[in-house]
UniProtKB/TrEMBL annotation, chain A:
<protein>
    <submittedName>
        <fullName>Putative ABC transport system ATP-binding protein</fullName>
    </submittedName>
</protein>
<dbReference type="GO" id="GO:0005886">
    <property type="term" value="C:plasma membrane"/>
</dbReference>
<dbReference type="InterPro" id="IPR003439">
    <property type="entry name" value="ABC_transporter-like_ATP-bd"/>
</dbReference>
<feature type="domain" description="ABC transporter">
    <location>
        <begin position="8"/>
        <end position="246"/>
    </location>
</feature>
<dbReference type="InterPro" id="IPR017911">
    <property type="entry name" value="MacB-like_ATP-bd"/>
</dbReference>
<dbReference type="InterPro" id="IPR003593">
    <property type="entry name" value="AAA+_ATPase"/>
</dbReference>
<dbReference type="InterPro" id="IPR027417">
    <property type="entry name" value="P-loop_NTPase"/>
</dbReference>
<keyword id="KW-0067">ATP-binding</keyword>
<dbReference type="GO" id="GO:0016887">
    <property type="term" value="F:ATP hydrolysis activity"/>
</dbReference>
Automatic annotation (TrEMBL), chain B:
<feature type="transmembrane region" description="Helical">
    <location>
        <begin position="664"/>
        <end position="686"/>
    </location>
</feature>
<keyword id="KW-0472">Membrane</keyword>
<feature type="transmembrane region" description="Helical">
    <location>
        <begin position="751"/>
        <end position="776"/>
    </location>
</feature>
<dbReference type="GO" id="GO:0044874">
    <property type="term" value="P:lipoprotein localization to outer membrane"/>
</dbReference>
<feature type="transmembrane region" description="Helical">
    <location>
        <begin position="707"/>
        <end position="731"/>
    </location>
</feature>
<feature type="transmembrane region" description="Helical">
    <location>
        <begin position="330"/>
        <end position="354"/>
    </location>
</feature>
<comment type="similarity">
    <text>Belongs to the ABC-4 integral membrane protein family. LolC/E subfamily.</text>
</comment>
<feature type="transmembrane region" description="Helical">
    <location>
        <begin position="20"/>
        <end position="40"/>
    </location>
</feature>
<dbReference type="Pfam" id="PF02687">
    <property type="entry name" value="FtsX"/>
</dbReference>
Length: 251, 790
C-alpha cells in the first residue's frame, strides 16, 4: 500500500434501525473516501448518523447496503471473527466517555489492546509504556482511570486506540466530555499524530475542534452534505462540489 | 422534618415503586420461609415436650414390690412428691400365634394430669368397664392390634413374674377377654408404665392377681437444676430406705431395677439424636435461606438505589444530609413493607399445616393445623423492619461518597505472565470489580459468595450426614447388632441343642448383671460378658481392644462419652451384689443392648470378671445363623423360648425415619445453589457488559469476549464453591460426630467421595446451563447500546 492509496472507501452506505414504531433511516447512502494520512473532521446535527457511520466503519455493526473498504479490504460481509481480527489491526476507536476499563490501570488498559491483538505480554507492556510516554502520561501509568482527569483519561483512551498502530483512528466526539483545556490537549495530540502520518476520522460538534483538522465533512439526515479543506475558520468548497449534485469525494 | 424528604420519597415511589413492591414481595417470601421453618422447627422440636405436657408425663416412676404393701403405701409420702398414682401391674400373654407379652397398668385414683396418654385412635376406656384396654402405640404396632380388636390375656402369677427371665412355662393366672378401645400415645411406653392401660374397674377385679405395683409421681421441681437434682437424690434415698427392715421382696432383684427412673428429665436418647439431626437440617435450611435471601434482596435493593446514585448527588447538592436521603428512601420502601408483611404472614400461617418433620411426627399430640401466633406476631413485624433497615442501609451505601472523592488505592500491576487475554481480563474484572465509585460494590458480591459457600457447604455436609446415616442403618454391626436372634433365657439344655444344630453358625451366652458406675453418683448400667459356646459372635468395637482378662473393661460408647473415660483410664464399679471392682478401660464398644437399654450403654468384661462381681448373673444368648437360616431356626424355637429377631433398636429406627431428610435437604440446597449461582453469574456478566463492549471494540472476537466473561463468572463463584466444599467437609464431620455420640454409636464419618466430587460440578454445570442464555444475551448486547455512543 502506497501513501497515496485511500485508507477508507465507503460507497452507497445505508443503515436503517428497526426500533420501536417507525424504522429510523440513520444512513441514506453515504459515500466517503479518506486517504491515508488525512485528518478528517465529521460534523452534523444531532441524530444525523455520525456515530452510526463510525460504528459501521469499525465493523461493530453491519450496513444494510453499500460497501466499506478498509485498507483495501472489503469488510461489510466479513464473519464476526474476521471482523474482530481486522479491527485489531486497522481500527482504533476513541469515545466521548473514554470507556476505559475501571479495574485496570492506565498501563493495563493500553496494553490490553495489544494483548487482545496477540502481542506477547512483555511486548504489549513495552508498547503501552512507550505510548503513554509519548502522550506524557508515564507518571500516571499505574493509576486507575478514576484517579485521572478527563483529559488524561481521554489521552489514555487514545493511547489504547493506537496500541496496534491502526490504519484508521476513529474518534466519536473525543472532546465532548472535556472542558476547553482538556479539549485543547486532545486536539493537540491529534494534530501531532496527524503530523506523524496517522489517518484520523473525528466526529465533533465543535467548530473550533473541527478547525484543527485538515478536511471537514458535513452530514445531514444520513447523507454527506459538504466536504472540503479546512482553511482557518472556513471551508473552502471545491469547485466539483459546487458543480456536482451528488456526493462529492470520488477519488 | 425536612419537606424535601417527602418530596424525594414521592419521587422515589414514582420512579421505583413497582421495583420496591417486587422487592417487598421477595422479602416476604424470604422472611416467610424463615418464619415457616421456625414454625415447623418449633413444632418439631416441641412435639416431644408438648406430648410430655399433654400426657402429664410423670417426673418419677418406680417398680414397687407387690409383696411389700408398706412401700407402696409410703410412696405418696416420699420427699418431694406433690402428686402420685400407685397402680397395679399385670404381666400377661396375649393369646396368638407368637409369644407376645404385655404389661397392663391400671388402678384407681389417678390424678387427671398424671400419666394420661393422648388418644390417637378410638377412645379412652370407660372407668367402669373392666374389659376395656388402651393399647400403647408400640404394642399396637408390634402385635398388629387395632381399635375394636378383642383379645385374650392370660395373666402370670406373682411367682411367675419373679421368674420371668428364667422361664415359667404357661401362664397360670386368670384369663381375661378384653376389647381394644383405643390406641394411646406416650413419650415412652416402657418400664413401670408397661405398654397398655386399663381401668379402675379392671384394677378392682384383678388387684389380687397383680404381678407388681407401679408408682408414678409429680415432684416439686423448682427449676433450679442443683436443687432439683438434690430432690431426686432425696427421693431415691427415701425410696431405698422404705425397703429397709423388710425381707428382700420377691420381685425386686436383678430383673427389676430398684432405682426409679425420671422420665421428664431423661429425654429418650432416640429423641435427642433425631431432634439434633432435624434441628441441624432446619438450621442449615434457615441459614441458607437467610444468607441467600439477604444476598439477593441486598443486591436488588443495592441496584435499585445505585440507579438513583445521580439523584442522591443532586439531593446532596440541594442540602439533604445523608440520613435525610436514606430516610426518604425508607419512606418510599414502605410501599414494599405491606406486601412483605402479607406474604411473610401468609407463608408463616400456611406452615402451621405441616406436621413435625420425620420421625418426630410420632410425638405430635395434636394433629392438623396449628397456628404459631407468637412467631407470626413477632416475626412478621421483624421481617418488615429488616426490609426497611436493608433499604436504609443500601440507600446509605449507594449514597456514600457522593460529596467526596472516593479513596483510591494505588494500583499494583499484575505480572503479565498471564498469556491468554481472556483469562487475564476475566480474572482482573472478577478480582477488582468492587469498591469502585459508582460501580458495583463489593458488599453484594461478598454476600453472594458467602451465600454460595454456605449452600455448597450445606450440600456437602448433608450428603455426608446422609451417607453416614445410611451406612449406620444398613450395618447392624455399627449399632451393635451382631447376632441374628437373641434368646432371653439361655438354658443349658437348649444351648446344647442349638450348638449341635447345623443351621447355627455361632452361639454365645451373654451374662448380665447391673453395676453402679462411679458409686457416688448411683448411675446404673448393665455389665456384660460373652461366653462363646460355638463359633464367634462378634462384638462391635469402636476403638481399642476387647477386655482379655480380669480387671479390664470395654465401655459402651455412650458410657465412655458420659463418664469422659478413654482407653487406659480406670473406672470404679459396684455390683448389685455389693462387690466393688476397679477396672482399666481397654476399648470402646457398642454392646448389643439387652432389654431395650439405649445404644452404647453398658460395659463389657470377661466372664471371669463378671463371675467375681455377681453370684448369679442373668443369662441370655446371641445366635448367628448360617446364611438364610435365621427364619427357620426362629420358627423352630419361637414356641418354647422367648426369642427375638433383633430388628432395629428405636434409636436407629428413628434415624432411619430421617434418612430422606439429608437427601431432601441436599436437593433443596442444590436448587438454592443453582439459583444463587445463576443470579451471581448473570449479575457478574451484567455488571461488565460495558467492559465486554470495550473488548469487542479493541478487536476481541465474540469467542474471546465470551471466554473473558466466562472466566469472570467462574472466578466470581469459584472461591465460594471451593470454600463451601471445605467448610462442608468439616461441618459434616462435626455434625455426624454429634449425632453419633448422641446415638451411642461409632462417630467415624462416611465421606461419599464420588457424590461430593460429582455434585459440585453438577451444580456448577446446572448453573452454567441455566445462566448461559441470559448471560449470552447480555454478551450480545450491541456495542453501541452498551457504550451509550449512539
Ligand atoms: N441502536 C439503535 N436503534 C435504533 N435507532 C438508533 C440506534 N442507534 C442510533 N439510532 C438512531 O439513528 C439515528 C442516527 O443516530 P446516530 O447516533 O448515528 O446520530 P449522531 O449523529 O451520532 O448524533 P449525536 O450527534 O447526537 O451523537 C438517530 O435518529 C438515532 O436515534
Ligand atoms: Mg453520536
Amino acid at each position: 500500500m502506497s501513501v497515496r492509496d485511500p485508507a477508507l472507501v465507503v460507497r452507497g452506505l445505508r443503515k436503517t434501525y428497526e426500533a420501536g414504531t417507525a424504522p429510523v433511516r440513520a444512513l441514506r447512502g453515504v459515500d466517503l473516501t479518506v486517504r491515508a494520512g488525512e485528518f478528517v473532521a465529521l460534523m452534523g446535527p444531532s441524530g444525523c448518523g455520525k456515530s452510526t457511520l463510525l460504528h459501521l466503519l469499525a465493523g461493530l455493526d453491519r450496513p444494510d447496503e453499500g460497501t466499506i473498504a478498509l485498507d483495501g479490504t472489503r469488510i461489510e460481509d466479513l464473519a464476526p471473527q474476521r471482523l474482530a481480527r481486522l479491527r485489531r489491526r486497522s481500527v482504533g476507536l476513541v469515545f466521548q466517555f473514554f470507556h476505559l476499563i475501571e479495574h485496570m490501570s492506565a498501563l493495563e488498559n493500553v496494553a490490553l489492546a495489544a494483548l487482545v491483538a496477540g502481542a506477547r505480554p512483555q511486548e504489549a507492556t513495552a508498547r503501552a509504556r512507550d505510548l503513554l510516554d509519548q502522550l506524557g502520561l508515564l507518571d500516571k501509568a499505574r493509576e486507575l482511570p478514576a484517579a485521572l482527569s478527563g483529559g488524561q483519561r481521554q489521552r489514555v483512551a487514545i493511547a489504547r486506540a493506537l496500541a496496534n498502530r491502526p490504519t484508521l483512528l476513529l474518534a466519536d466526539e473525543p472532546t465532548g466530555a472535556l472542558d476547553s483545556d482538556g479539549a485543547a490537549e486532545v486536539l493537540d495530540l491529534f494534530r501531532r499524530l496527524h503530523a506523524l502520518g496517522q489517518t484520523i476520522l473525528m466526529v465533533t460538534h465543535s467548530r473550533e475542534v473541527a478547525d484543527g483538522a485538515q478536511r471537514l465533512v458535513r452530514m445531514r439526515d444520513g447523507r454527506i452534505l459538504l466536504d472540503g479543506e479546512v482553511t482557518s475558520g472556513s471551508i473552502e468548497v471545491p469547485a466539483e462540489l459546487r458543480a456536482a449534485s451528488g456526493p462529492w469525494a470520488r477519488p | 422534618m425536612n419537606p424535601g424528604i417527602l418530596a424525594v420519597a414521592r419521587a422515589e415511589l414514582r420512579a421505583g415503586g413497582r421495583a420496591l413492591v417486587v422487592l417487598g414481595l421477595l422479602a416476604g417470601v424470604v422472611g416467610g420461609l424463615l418464619l415457616g421453618a421456625t414454625v415447623v422447627g418449633d413444632r418439631t422440636a416441641s412435639a416431644y415436650s408438648r406430648l410430655v405436657q399433654d400426657t402429664g408425663l410423670d417426673d418419677a416412676r418406680a417398680y414397687l414390690p407387690a409383696d411389700l404393701p408398706e412401700v407402696t403405701a409410703g410412696f405418696a409420702g416420699l420427699p418431694g412428691v406433690e402428686e402420685s398414682w400407685t397402680a397395679y401391674a399385670w404381666i400377661a400373654q396375649i393369646e396368638g400365634p407368637t409369644l407376645q407379652y404385655t404389661a397392663v397398668v391400671a388402678g384407681p385414683e389417678r390424678p387427671d394430669d398424671l400419666v394420661d396418654p393422648v388418644i390417637v385412635a378410638g377412645r379412652a376406656p370407660r372407668v367402669e368397664a373392666a374389659d376395656e384396654l388402651l393399647v400403647g402405640e408400640p404394642l399396637a404396632a408390634a402385635a398388629g392390634l387395632r381399635v375394636g380388636d378383642r383379645i385374650t390375656l392370660r395373666m402370670l402369677t406373682l411367682r411367675q413374674v419373679a421368674r420371668f427371665d428364667v422361664g415359667f412355662g404357661t401362664p397360670e393366672g386368670a384369663t381375661r377377654r378384653m376389647t381394644v378401645v383405643g390406641i394411646g400415645r406416650m413419650p415412652s411406653w416402657t418400664g413401670p408404665l408397661g405398654d397398655s392401660m386399663s381401668t379402675p374397674a379392671f384394677a378392682a377385679q384383678n388387684a389380687g392377681a397383680a404381678g407388681g405395683r407401679s408408682g408414678f409421681a409429680r415432684l416439686a421441681y423448682t427449676g433450679d437444676p442443683v436443687a432439683d437434682a438434690q430432690l431426686r437424690d432425696d427421693f431415691v434415698a427415701a425410696l431405698a430406705a422404705s425397703y429397709v427392715g423388710h425381707p428382700r421382696p420377691l420381685l425386686v432383684g436383678n430383673y427389676v431395677p430398684e432405682v426409679p427412673v425420671f422420665p421428664t428429665t431423661e429425654t429418650d436418647p432416640a429423641v435427642a439424636a433425631s431432634e439434633r439431626v432435624l434441628r441441624l437440617g432446619l438450621w442449615g435450611f434457615a441459614l441458607v435461606v437467610a444468607l441467600g435471601g439477604t444476598a439477593v434482596l441486598g443486591q436488588g435493593l443495592m441496584r435499585h438505589h445505585l440507579r438513583g446514585g445521580a439523584d442522591q448527588r443532586v439531593e446532596n447538592a440541594l442540602g439533604l444530609t445523608a440520613a435525610e436521603r436514606a430516610g426518604a428512601r425508607v419512606l418510599a420502601a414502605l410501599a414494599g413493607a405491606l406486601p412483605a408483611a402479607a406474604v411473610a404472614g401468609g407463608i408463616t400461617l400456611a406452615a402451621g399445616l405441616l406436621e413435625p418433620i420425620g420421625s418426630q411426627a410420632r410425638f405430635e399430640p395434636e394433629g392438623g393445623f396449628r397456628a404459631d401466633w407468637p412467631v407470626v406476631l413477632l416475626g412478621v413485624p421483624a421481617v418488615v423492619l429488616v426490609f426497611l433497615a436493608a433499604a436504609a442501609a443500601t440507600a446509605a451505601w449507594a449514597g456514600r461518597g457522593v460529596a467526596t472523592l472516593p479513596v483510591l488505592t494505588r494500583h499494583r500491576s499484575v505480572r503479565w505472565a498471564v498469556r491468554w487475554p481472556a483469562l487475564f481480563v476475566g480474572l482482573r474484572l472478577a478480582l477488582r470489580g468492587r469498591a469502585l465509585p459508582g460501580g458495583a460494590s463489593g458488599l453484594p458480591t461478598l454476600a453472594a459468595g458467602a451465600g454460595i459457600a454456605v449452600t455448597v457447604a450445606g450440600i456437602v455436609a448433608s450428603t455426608m450426614l446422609g451417607a453416614s446415616l445410611q451406612r449406620l442403618v444398613d450395618t447392624p454391626a455399627r449399632y451393635g447388632f451382631t447376632s441374628d436372634l437373641t434368646i432371653a433365657d439361655a438354658r443349658d439344655s437348649e444351648m446344647r441343642a442349638l450348638a449341635a444344630d447345623s443351621r447355627v453358625a455361632a452361639l454365645a451366652e451373654v451374662e448380665t448383671g447391673r453395676v453402679t458406675l462411679d458409686p457416688s453418683r448411683s448411675r446404673q448400667v448393665d455389665a456384660y460378658a460373652h461366653v462363646a459356646i460355638k463359633g464367634d459372635v462378634p462384638i462391635s468395637l469402636v476403638s481399642g481392644t476387647l477386655p482379655t482378662g480380669p480387671g479390664q473393661v470395654a465401655l459402651g460408647a455412650r458410657v465412655a462419652a458420659r463418664e469422659e473415660k478413654g482407653i487406659g483410664d480406670t473406672v470404679d464399679v459396684l455390683s448389685s451384689d455389693g462387690v466393688p471392682a476397679r477396672l482399666v478401660v481397654t476399648g470402646v464398644v457398642v454392646p448389643q443392648p439387652e432389654r431395650g437399654a439405649p445404644l452404647g450403654e453398658g460395659l463389657l468384661v470377661t466372664p471371669d470378671q463378671l463371675g467375681q462381681l455377681f453370684r448369679q448373673p442373668l443369662a441370655s444368648a446371641h445366635l448367628v445363623a448360617e446364611p438364610g437360616q435365621a427364619a427357620s431356626v426362629y420358627a423352630d424355637i419361637a414356641d418354647r423360648l422367648e426369642v427375638h429377631l433383633p430388628g432395629m433398636p428405636p434409636e436407629i429406627d428413628t434415624l432411619a425415619g430421617l434418612l430422606r431428610l439429608p437427601e431432601i435437604l441436599a436437593l433443596v440446597l442444590a436448587a438454592v445453589a443453582v439459583a444463587g449461582l445463576v443470579h451471581t453469574l448473570v449479575g457478574a456478566v451484567r455488571r461488565h457488559t460495558r467492559d465486554a463492549a470495550v473488548l469487542a471494540v479493541l478487536g476481541a472476537t465474540p469467542g474471546q469476549v465470551r471466554a473473558a466473561l466466562g472466566v469472570l463468572a467462574g472466578t466470581t463463584v469459584l472461591p465460594g464453591v471451593v470454600g463451601g466444599v471445605l467448610l462442608g467437609l468439616g461441618a459434616g464431620r462435626v455434625l455426624w460426630w454429634q449425632v453419633a455420640s448422641e446415638t451411642g454409636v461409632a462417630p467415624d464419618v462416611a465421606v461419599p467421595i464420588w457424590p461430593i466430587i460429582l455434585i459440585v460440578p453438577a451444580v456448577l454445570a446446572g448453573a452454567a446451563i441455566l445462566g448461559a442464555l441470559p448471560a449470552l444475551r447480555l454478551a450480545r448486547t450491541p456495542v453501541a447500546r452498551s457504550l451509550h455512543t449512539a
